[in-house]
Amino acid sequence: MTIIRSLVLFALAAVAEIGGAWLVWQGVREQRGLLWIGAGVIALGVYGFVATLQPDANFGRILAAYGGVFVAGSLAWGMVVDGFRPDRWDVIGAAICLVGVLVIMYAPRG
Predict the structure, then answer these.
(1) Measured in whole angstroms, how far is the alpha carbon of residue 32 from the centre of its chain?
(2) What is the DSSP string of 19-65?
(3) How many CB atoms lie within 10 A of CB 44?
(4) In whole angstroms, what is the distance from residue 27 CA to residue 40 CA?
(5) pLDDT at 98
(6) Membrane-spanning regions, if any (predicted)?
């Protein structure tokens, strides 16, 4: 159950951070205005909070592992929201990052 909870929290954190960054991007780069930027800032704050809910107590481990989730999640967000099509190197790189997440977070420790 702890691993499932952790994976769900990583997914929620990814949506909050990537979505927040996307909203700021839209507000600034696509000139959609301060409401989009403000919503993005709030979502980024939610990401910071969600990360604290991880069962592991080590900040460095959580953020290092989340980096891999962020890489894969960013490519997925781009595909779904912006029509981005990753090439095979993007996919291979994201897969390597996700393997790193599994090793960092869920490897047996004595």
Answers:
(1) 23
(2) HHHHHHHHHHHT---HHHHHHHHHHHHHHHHHHTTSSS--HHHHHHH
(3) 17
(4) 9
(5) 97
(6) 33-50, 62-79, 91-108
* Signed CA dihedral, 53, 56, 59, 60: sign only: negative
Q: Which residues contact 23 (CB under 8 A, 6 or more apart)?
A: 36, 37, 39, 40, 43
Cβ pair 21, 80 in contact under 8 A: no
CA distance 25 to 64: 24
Of 16, 24, 26, 31, the closest CA to residue 74 belongs to 16
Per-residue pLDDT tens over the stretch 65-84: 999 999 999 999 999 999 99
Domain range annotation of the chain? 2-106
Rounded distance between C-alpha atoms, residue 74 and residue 68, angstroms: 10
Q: Residue 105, Cβ neighbours under 10 Å: how many?
A: 21
